[in-house]
## 1
Amino acid sequence: MSSAELESPFELCPELDEAFLDELSFMILKVVEMTMQNLNSNFDDNYTRETCIYGRVRQLFLQLARDASKPWLTVKSKTMDYVPSICNIPVRVFRDDPLNPKKKKVFFKNDCEQSQLALLFDDFDTQLASQITWRLFIQAPESNLENGELEDLEDDFRVVLVGFSAMTGEIRSMWQSKSASRAVPYAIDAELPEANILERKPVKSKEVDTGLANENGKQV
């Protein structure tokens, strides 16, 4: 089932903004790419990579929540089972297959998520809020990873937003990031610092005391 065969999340939930999802997805994929490149030693395996990806993505959300220029993203629960909100819509983040999630908690709303939805009942349709469970997936490429490196730029990690039916667990809506992080150009605005000019000072040769004296008692 492709995303084109499902309802658009932006029609199903007009509060969501695709531009924000694009921006957020790019940052998530950069963190994933960096992690895969860092954890590429003989002492790394899927466990070290997966746990590090989870922790780093969580830290990304916590830092973005403190960014005043991004009021559309907040994190109400900062525990390990954190709950970010995108455009006031609570979501939860998983490293799993969006079409066939293996983690059962994907389909369950935790206490923080339910309380956030309760606060939104006055802003949009209560029935709709209770029927949809929004999840943000970091989807791994289908091809195998060799030494922690991706084989093909066109076969890369992606971010997928899925709206599940809260009653049946069936997928009602889906959106996926347009491109992988490495395929998207981005500006580097950091400037190199100016070089410091060091003043050269004359160096005097050091006299060495040989301990030898001539017949007049003078050092030689």
## 2
Amino acid sequence: MTVFKLPDLGEGLSEAEVLRWHVQVGDRVEVDAPMLAVETAKAVVEVPSPVAGTITALHAQPGDRIEIGAALVEFALEAGTEAADSGTVVGYMPAAADDYPGSEALPAVSPVTAPRARAVPAARALARSLGVNLAAVSGSGQGGLITIEDVLARAGPSARGGVAALQPPADFGAQVQELRGPRRAMAQSMTSARDSVAACTVFDDADLHRWRPGADYSARVLRAIAVAVRAEPGLNAWYDATHERRLLFTRVDVGLAVDTPDGLIVPVIRRVETLSASQLRAELDRLKRAARDRSLSSEEMRHSTFVLSNFGTLAGRYATPVVLPPTVAILGTGRARQDVLAVDGQPQPRWRMPLSLSFDHRVVTGGEAVRFLGALIGDLELPE
């Protein structure tokens, strides 16, 4: 008999949620046969069987959250079969500062050795109240920044119980929904962004009156992003705050913010600069379907170099989109509508697309941002 523990999923995460089992007690499984699907904050991952044998016990049910290293399933091994290596790593998640194909790193600046761990102020205060030594906490934020979630994870389950939960009056009829999967990941990433990014947003409009009827808005915006990157590469980059350097990319991999009932998911369209309009449309449709039916692989959600939020397909003109580290910029496109403009001294109705460009002002200058936005608008205003 052997116990298989939830392995390191290779994403720098401490836990996962059981989504569904493919096996039941009494089933015989082969080596590498899929046993269950778990959902992390980043993706749905299939966990394979490490041995050939018969399932004798399952230690979690769908919806349960289990920590890395916790007992997952028990096997009765077949004769001659060795016990599983519970330290197996499933997949690979490089650090944000790892080399990325097509990147150009600026010279690194040696950081000053800090006398204490880097943590957001709220996390430091919580650690004091819970008696947690921050030196023993691994930060999940940008550049190893320690967040509230990191402190709670170190303190253990009892710490969460010690924090008073919000309790509305009984007659309010509130429905309690635990944050899970993509929605929980969104809460964590937005908290990290708030704590680590110096956000700034500029706004403008693109005049679309020269577009032909039926033009593909999303494909045109993606093409314009690639053009703007050539004009101003500084926004197609990552910022490594720990070593005070940025990584500039020649390839344009755009993360597309997709709204789903389970929360915000950001799949990545690879090498936008090499794709035709029809190829962009096909890839957009494929990734949106995969995001909504939860079939995206973790690889399809990694390593964006720029982010696009096309919120205007729903409603809204302008916004202040949130930059997701380690990227340094995000473009929001609002709902296009007709405005009456003065053209050669005469009023004319013109279709215009509202644009909102947020950037990390720690590493992107205002001049770089407006040059990028100007190049993007210039391409959008072409007839094709």
## 3
Amino acid sequence: MRLSIIAALLGLALAGGQLRAQTPAAITSDPLADKTFLPSLLGITVPSHGTDMDATLYLAGGAGPHGTVLLLHGLPGYEANGDLAQSMRRAGWNVLLFNYRGTWGTPGMFTQSSAIEDTAEAVRFLLDPAAVSKYRIDPRRLVLVGHSFGAFLAGYEASHNAEIMAAAMISAPNLGQINSNPQEREIRLKRWEAQLHPVRGSTASELFAEAQMHGKDWDYIAWADALRRHQILLIAADDQNRSDMQALATALRHKKADRLDYVAVPTDHSFSDHRIALQTIVLAWLEKLGK
């Protein structure tokens, strides 16, 4: 799908080559409060392989049950997308953010493989009957939204778990291919080396070597057949991941994925100057899921 097509699908418009849209009320206005079931913020832990992962749960107001978003941050996750979490909650969704083992003070040693495990455990936590009851979760409406490395995790989990309703991948690196181009690899490697202070257990070189070992399994183009069974949103930026995101969109179209939405946004990897646009795209997509 070209940008103009997907823009129409999401109720967006293009003006002068820039993404324009009517800003959803959930971005600009607080909803009327249900005095019995007020929105709240909970600091909790999510268990994963013997470790309690630090997590934040944004509970939507109202009796529910509510659709729930597992919001997956990048590596290490300097941009945690808290603004997106707040707007999704105002739109009526619970949102869970957590820190992978070995990141941001959560105990353990980080690897990309362990983060894949952590994501699966977070999904299991949200689908557990005790959590479903306690947090007013609708288990039929569990959505993954990931940014950067978190987008890779969202795609991986969705491709391996039929219980996921939908997945949004925002500027996802294709870890199965990050070693394929030596020049691009060096650019990424230098950037990763400068960003791993909050990460324990792995160096950038070790993470690239791990990705090399899993090249076949972690090439997200190969997940297209599994992903097409879900509702999928791909949001690309002007960064090193854009061509891979386009390739994934092409692969999904070849697999006849009729529930694919693709948007390319002219911004940096963190969507620094398009935060409202990012929220607008995601909220419009979530609104479609709820109908």
